[in-house]
Amino acid sequence: MTKKLTTTFDKWMKNPTIKRAYEDSYQEFVLSEMIRALMENDHKSVRGLAKKVGLSPTVIQDIRSGKQEDMKVKNFISIVHACGYHLFLVNEHEKIPVG
Question: Could you say which DSSP state residue 91 is in?
């Protein structure tokens, strides 16, 4: 019988405080990476995007780098639209445009 090894990560995820911190920081990381990819795909500079959505270049750079916490939904939607994309809420019965 083989014993399953428990990784350090598995041990940490059993601690609710550590797990919550990890989940929060991971979500912020994914969001900043998504915005970075949108900007890259649409060839948007930080300054160009900032001007188009009415935010300061510093705010856009902080969002892009993951330093900005708790981004407003309005700002996220504006950035997505400025990069030429649309957001939808989708389930098996409906597709609702956002923004």
Answer: -
Q: What mean pLDDT comes out for the span 20-42?
A: 86
Q: Which amino acid is at 97?
A: P
15 three-class SS = coil
The whole-angstrom separation of Cα 91 and Cα 9 is: 32
- pLDDT of 1 reads 60
Gap between the Cα atoms of 37 and 16, Å rounded: 31
The dihedral through the CA atoms of 11, 17, 20, 22 has a sign that is negative
Measuring CA to CA, how many Å separate 30 from each of 6, 27, 66?
26, 5, 9
pLDDT in tens, 35-75: 999 999 999 999 999 999 999 999 999 988 878 877 888 99
Which amino acid, residue 71?
M
CA angle 33/92/32 to nearest 5° reads: 10
Q: In DSSP terms, which residues pair with 98 in a beta bridge?
A: 87
Distance in angstroms (rounded) separating the CA atoms of residues 55 and 62: 11
